Amino acid sequence: MEGSSLRAVGWACSLPLDSEVKAARDWAREHLEARGWTSAAPDTVDSVLLTISELVTNAHRHAHSSAQLVMACDDHCLHVSVHDKSAVLPVRREAGEESLGGRGMFLVDAVADTWEAHPCRHGKSVSACFRVPEADTGAGAGARD
For the whole model, what pTM was predicted? Predict the structure, then answer.
């Protein structure tokens, strides 16, 4: 059946607890740049990188865990997922005006098209979806490992 197959490409990296969040952003930016997103959809790239920063920070700071970052792109969405070893699911909460933290999931909720968290056997996975820019002509185009 024509059009029924799913075309997708994905990348994964492991970020030890002592790694900097910047390493995750740089890694993701390289893959998004290879797909042409940095020029075709710079605002989306900024949203993806902000989301990655927040999710990896949560894994390191709140779960006291390494983070496994996975990006998968199909014809419709870029899925960004971060897995950590804590079973505690994140919640969007209102931070007080004087609070120094507590806005991470609020930011993810504001910039991602959707996000969700799922418990896993050894922790949880938090995923966000971003619509694919019009200029991205297919899941295999420009992909690099």
Answer: 0.84
